[in-house]
Design goal:
This protein is α/β, with parallel strands linked by helices. The protein has 3 domains: 128 residues, no CATH class; 95 residues, Nucleotidyltransferase, domain 5; 204 residues, no CATH class. The chain is 39% helix and 21% strand. It has a 17-stranded mixed β-sheet that branches. Helix 1 crosses helix 14, helix 12 crosses helix 14 and helix 13 crosses helix 14.
């Protein structure tokens, strides 16, 4: 049965649609699994994966001798028992608090009575039954091993309830709540901060300046340039700084930011619309809370420049706790997650000494916070709120080769392109029927003829060939195998054929 060109074209288009749906679905499945586990901290090169207690025990061997002698790894089993292990590999299982105390004395006999016991908890122990952590010695030094990294574990009592938090450095702590929240917070705090992508904004109603992709250069070396923007137009300008970070400051009262421009009374800005616009453009939003609503870059009554000088870190890409430590002056603060989702993560910093009722307790008096912008020209931070791109969303953005196109589509297309090359010969025969080769006589000029051929070849190479790849590649393989079998049969039958001809 002979097919017309139109019938053959419709058949090919139908096959392309079916194979494309199947290929993209398959690509999404394996790619999602890969992206989900790319951040796993467990090494994959070992032939046998270590258990949680063995991994903690292996870490104890890396400690100095003085600390190793008083250290033990602890794991809470599913039955509610404690499994202990020291650096030498000796183990002990305790079912009661008395057995736990005896096991600690057996596995780490201290040479000095004043030395504190060092207990390294495994990852799962923190999230199983935090009430069981009360059985650990109150004066012991607690550490936790998460994703092959050791964090200090702080324990404090608030209203008769034991609260635990991880120390990530520079006085920043992450409270132990849910597993997903802790891992999200640790990832956010471990992210290197690109200071070149930070844009410090001064809210000035009526400002005509627009945000540009390139940050302006401040004439003073070592300072971040301050850009004056109209707060009413700001949500519409965030697309120009996509995947960047903007920093604004003011006095917070609930979801409202109070700010004082260079002239005139205080104004207010609702942050909900700004947060939505930041999420659409994948912009990180940082709000520095201050007792003063004065904006950076303005002039105070001493005619000094009010500036966020503490934003400049000692390294090119410091971690977030480094910058937080500069803003807090080393005072212990705790992350308080407002919302963690697939696309965004919002949290604020809360002073450990003040609970969840306000910002951190900075090493300055309230009077100094009010006078500092007027006397020294420096905005003193009393709180920090961050609305950032989530870990899953950031991994999706980093996996993209071309901005604006989802990574699953891009990688699925590359897979289809590679498969299409395997069936190049078959696809070329089909393409010849769908779009016959141009004739030189149909074009008055040579340039027009070659331009048409380039368009035809481009569409074939980047559109038709990848789409029909899942069908053309297997067919090309079958044809190749068949030709190989025919060639082998011809070679084997050659002596008999020659004898029969003779």
């Amino acid at each position: 049965m002979e097919f017309s060109k139109r019938q053959f074209g419709l058949l090919v288009i139908g096959l392309m649609a079916l194979t494309l749906l199947a290929s993209v679905s398959a690509s999404a499945n394996w790619l999602t699994r890969i992206l989900k586990h790319t951040d796993d901290g467990v090494p994959h090169g070992t032939a046998k994966r270590l258990t949680a207690i063995d991994e903690a025990g292996a870490h104890l061997k890396t400690l100095p001798a003085t600390r190793r002698a008083r250290a033990v790894a602890a794991e809470l089993t599913d039955e509610g028992h404690w499994r202990l292990r020291n650096a030498e590999g000796e183990t002990f299982t305790a079912a009661t608090p008395e057995e736990l105390s005896r096991g600690l004395r057996v596995l780490m006999p201290l040479t000095e009575e004043a030395a504190k016991q060092l207990i390294l908890l495994t990852n799962d122990t923190l999230f199983k039954d935090r009430a069981k952590l009360k059985e650990l010695p109150a004066d012991a030094e607690l550490n936790a091993l998460l994703d092959s990294r050791v964090y200090g574990l702080h324990r404090r009592v608030v209203n008769g309830v034991d609260l635990y938090s991880l120390d990530v450095g520079n006085g920043v702590r992450v409270p132990i709540r849910s597993r997903s929240e802790v891992h999200e917070m640790l990832w956010q705090l471990a992210r290197p901060v690109d200071l070149a992508a930070i844009r410090v904004l001064a809210l000035e109603p009526g400002a005509t300046g627009l945000l540009k992709r390139a940050r302006p250069v401040d004439p003073t070396p070592g300072r971040v340039a301050v850009e004056a923007v109209d707060p009413d137009r700001l949500p519409h300008m965030l697309s120009a700084v996509a995947r960047g970070t903007i920093v604004i400051s003011g006095r917070m009262k609930g979801p409202v930011l109070h700010f004082r421009p260079s002239s005139g009374p205080e104004r207010t800005l609702m942050l909900d619309e700004l947060r939505r616009a930041a999420a659409e453009s994948d912009v990180n939003l940082v709000v520095i809370e201050s007792a003063s609503a004065r904006q950076p870059g303005t002039r105070n009554w001493f005619w000094q420049r009010v500036d966020l000088t503490r934003l400049d870190g000692p390294r090119t890409k410091p971690a977030l706790p480094d910058l937080i430590g500069q803003l807090t002056g080393g005072v212990a603060v705790e992350t308080d997650a407002i919302a963690t989702g697939e696309l965004r993560t919002s949290f604020q910093l809360v002073g450990v000494g003040r609970g969840s009722g306000g910002g951190w307790t900075a090493p300055v008096s309230e009077t100094w916070r009010d006078l500092a912008p007027e006397v020294t020209g420096t905005i003193v931070a009393s709180g920090l709120r961050l609305d950032l791109t989530s870990r899953d969303r950031q991994r999706e953005l980093d996996a993209r080769f071309v901005p604006g196109i989802p990574s699953l589509i891009q990688i699925g297309y590359l897979v289809l392109l590679v498969i299409g090359f395997a069936g190049l010969g078959v696809a070329r025969d089909w393409w010849q029927r769908v779009w016959p080769l141009e004739a030189r006589a149909d074009y008055a000029r040579r340039t027009g003829y070659w331009a048409a051929r380039c368009v035809r070849g481009t569409i074939f190479l980047f559109m038709f060939m990848p789409l029909v790849g899942p069908v053309s590649a297997p067919l090309a393989f079958v044809r190749g195998v068949w030709r190989t079998l025919i060639t082998i049969g011809t070679i084997l039958a050659y002596p008999f054929t020659r004898r029969r001809a003779a």
